TrEMBL record:
GO terms for biological process: proteolysis; signal transduction. SUPFAM superfamilies: ClpP/crotonase, PDZ domain-like. It comes from the Bacteria. GO terms for cellular component: outer membrane-bounded periplasmic space. It comes from Rhodoferax saidenbachensis. This is Peptidase S41. Pfam families: CtpB_N-like (PF22694), PDZ_2 (PF13180), Peptidase_S41 (PF03572). GO terms for molecular function: endopeptidase activity; serine-type peptidase activity. Belongs to the peptidase S41A family.
Length: 480
């Protein structure tokens, strides 16, 4: 059959941007083609000829063809996509957790690029960049007015090339230039710590090639620091997805061996499968199992999983598996609702097609497509509530999204009202100083949802949400 690599993908969340997909990479192409509609293909060829001969100025033939392919594929659903050389390179960087750049996590503040943190050991870390530094220029280009993606592209490049950053350090009230040599950066997708004696927090921000190894190392570190853990919080908030085999592996860490983690179903034989909590399903036949040395206590330790509207795809698979097997209590808010699977078909050495081939289902057989995982305990983002939750994009908001395939979608009549109220609140918040608008960092001592998760583990009262309610799958217009 050939090597397969399952991938789930990206949604724009803060500094992370991408395409929110679940993908099966296959190095073999299908041998069969459906009968071709000759009349329509003749029309396509005729239009191509007319554009080439009659358009006001000469056109690039190759661009015409690739644009036609892109248009055809993108018309299907939000996640099917044609990859040209550039987008394919970016796609591979995202799934590997490796890219060539300076090594900083960034966000935007007042039109400038703000350093959230330099990645430990990276060129930016060695150059002395600090959290809260503002980047005002990249080489000779002023950052003001650039989108975050444009700024990222300018800082990335080829290995061993140099980029000049102009830094404004607020606490020292000075600007200074820093020349940094780009190199391959390995992103860290796992963080964790002992919150208090007996209780730990571990966060997976994205499922990448190194995630399972990094997860195993972090768990080992925490158990050495606190051998008698009484409870663990697995934080999947704003986790946009990543590698499916990594999601199956993280699920298997906490589940009995060989139970179902996720199943998929579509038209083709390879789209129908069941993935279980067993090394053969998350490791294949390559390498050693990094979970082999995990403490046996992980199978039974009291477990909370934190999710929110930004938890998508692979993170929803983990939450759904642990919920269905009653292995964890899911806390937070309803997840994004990305429940379709895409397959990657290579078209050449550096181009390919990502096409939706199936839906995936939780162990109990539920599709979460356009709905999401409903938490067991609803918890707001802060003690004041979740005022902007209604403004967040969900799968059901995307043009041409698939339905769940499990019953009619229902219109959420209260959502528009909630969005109007949230927009008014956002306008009021935008007038406040930046420091007052910044939400608490995940894992910090001001993380309200984490505090409620620890309370749940201890059997203490939890401040549950009084406003968050389950959203139903919304009815699509009949002409969609």
């Amino acid at each position: 059959m050939g090597h397969k690599l399952k991938i789930t993908g990206w949604i724009a969340l803060g500094v992370v941007a991408g395409a929110l997909t679940t993908v099966s990479l296959q190095t073999v192409a299908r041998n069969t083609l459906a009968p071709l509609p000759l009349e329509e293909l003749q029309q396509l060829a005729a239009v191509f000829g007319m554009v080439k001969s009659d358009y006001v100025e000469p056109v690039d033939e190759k661009k015409l063809i690739t644009d036609a392919i892109s248009g055809m594929v993108s018309s299907l659903d939000p996640h099917s996509q044609y990859f040209d050389k550039k987008s394919f390179k970016e796609f591979k960087e995202g799934t590997s957790g490796r890219f060539v750049g300076v090594g900083i996590e960034i966000t935007q503040e007042d039109g400038l690029v703000k350093v959230v943190t330099p990645i430990e050991g990276s060129p930016a870390f060695r150059a002395g960049l600090k959290t809260n530094d503002l980047i005002t220029k990249i080489d000779d280009t002023a950052v003001k007015g650039l989108s975050l993606n444009d700024a990222v592209k300018r800082m990335r490049g080829e290995p061993n090339t140099k980029v000049l950053l102009t830094i404004f350090r607020k606490d020292e009230n000075r600007s200074f230039p820093v020349t940094i040599t780009r190199e391959e950066i390995k992103q860290q997708s796992v963080r964790g710590k002992i919150v208090e004696p007996g209780y730990a927090w571990i966060r997976v921000s994205q499922f990448q090639e190194r995630t399972v190894d990094d997860f195993a190392k972090k768990v080992d570190e925490m158990y050495k620091q606190e051998p008698r853990l009484k409870g663990l919080v697995l934080d999947l908030r704003n986790d946009p997805g990543g590698l499916l085999n990594a999601a199956v592996a993280i699920s298997a860490t906490f589940l009995p061996e060989n139970v179902t983690v996720v199943s998929t179903n579509g038209q083709t034989p390879e789209s129908k499968q069941v993935l279980k909590a067993t090394p053969s399903d998350y490791m294949g036949r390559v390498g050693s199992d990094p979970l082999k040395t995990m403490p046996a206590a992980l199978k039974k330790i009291p477990l909370i999983v934190l999710v929110n509207e930004g938890s998508a795809s692979a993170s929803e698979i983990v939450a759904g598996a642990l919920q269905d097997h009653k292995r964890a209590t899911i806390m937070g808010s309803q997840t994004f609702g990305k429940g379709s699977v895409q397959t990657f078909r290579p078209l050449g050495p550096d181009t390919g097609l990502k096409i939706t081939t199936s839906r995936y289902y939780t162990p109990s057989g539920k599709s979460i497509q356009a709905k999401g995982i409903v938490p067991d305990v609803w918890v707001d983002e802060t003690v004041e509530g979740s005022p902007f939750a209604a403004l967040r994009t969900r799968e059901a908001d995307l043009e041409k999204h698939l339905t769940s395939g499990q019953g009619e979608e229902k219109k959420d009549a209260a959502r528009e009202k909630a969005r109007e109220e949230a927009m008014k609140r956002l306008e009021e918040e935008s007038r406040k100083p930046v420091a007052e608008r910044k939400p608490p960092e995940f894992g910090s001592d001001k993380d309200f949802q984490l505090a409620q998760a620890i309370n749940q583990l201890k059997g203490k009262p939890v401040l549950v949400s009084k406003t968050l309610v389950e959203r139903k799958e919304e009815k699509k217009d009949s002409d969609d």
